[in-house]
Amino acid sequence: MMIVVIDGPAGAGKSTTAQAVARKAGLDYIDSGAIYRGFTVLYNELKHDRASFFEAIKQERLRFEFDRDVSRVYLDKSEITEELRSPSVNDNVSVVAAMPEVRNQVTVELKKAVGASDCIAEGRDLGTVVFPEAELKFFLTADLDERARRRQLEMESKVEYSADSKFQNVKENLQQRDTIDSSRKEAPLQKAKDAIELDTTSLSFDRQVQIITEAIERVRTQRSNSNSQ
User: How far apart are CA 12 and CA 183, in angstroms?
Assistant: First the structure.
């Protein structure tokens, strides 16, 4: 079983790239962002009351389902997948993700999601904290303006957000998330020492998928050759 991880800041293209690589290379796809956003929906529902929120975490009110093409999140018996990209979640996800109680539970959920098949997961600290044993690690970056442009297009393609989808608002939100993610005490956003960095600012989507897929195939070939000896 091979674990491939993609880390990087918001808007660098981790999710779409990981999904495309999963389909092309035949991997299971695990979306850590969906888990954090699921917890953020719960946090918002409980009006940011941390005591109630931490108690709800213990009650395991959230359920996550992953396959090659889609991630589904359920709160109690209701699916909340469509809420994961709402403005209120965007505004609070980094705050929630900085909570040690949440990070510990997300790590549990991620490890639970890994099965016997080769898989690819994306997030912020997967190569450094959650899956330090991953066979392949990538760190995707892009400049802030390009990341904001991508996130704006993503938001506008799904829901009408009015002012929340304006470029400057999106850019400021990403900049704030970068600061929180990089400066938090618990598992800050950082590149693993053995990660391959890809700056996707000017890199075509097809090319970045190709680079990662080819790296996976090289590892598979090496494994096959080693097993045949």
Answer: 18
pTM of the model: 0.87
**Of residues 82, 81, 97, the one with CA closest to residue 43:** 97
Sequential DSSP letters for 49-81: -HHHHHHHHHTT-EEEEE-SS-EEEEETTEE-G
Instruction: Give the C-alpha distances (Å, rounded to integers) separating 126 from 78, 157, 185.
Output: 28, 28, 16
Nearest CA-CA partner of 126 in 212, 195, 229, 41: 195
Tell me how far apart the alpha carbons of residues 27 and 135 are, in angstroms, rounded to a whole number.
14
At residue 146, the pLDDT reads 94
Single-letter amino acid code for the residue at 5: V
Dihedral angle sign, alpha carbons of residues 173, 176, 178, 180: negative
Domains of the chain by residue range: 3-207
β-pairing, 71-75 vs 62-66, is: antiparallel
Whether 7 contacts 195, CB under 8 Å: yes
CA pair distance 120, 114, nearest whole angstrom = 9
The one-letter amino acid code at 32 reads S
CA gap 161, 189 in Å, rounded: 28
Give per-residue pLDDT as tens, 39-66.
999 999 999 999 999 999 999 899 999 8
* R_g of the chain, CA atoms, integer Å: 17
User: For 3-207, which CATH class?
Assistant: alpha beta
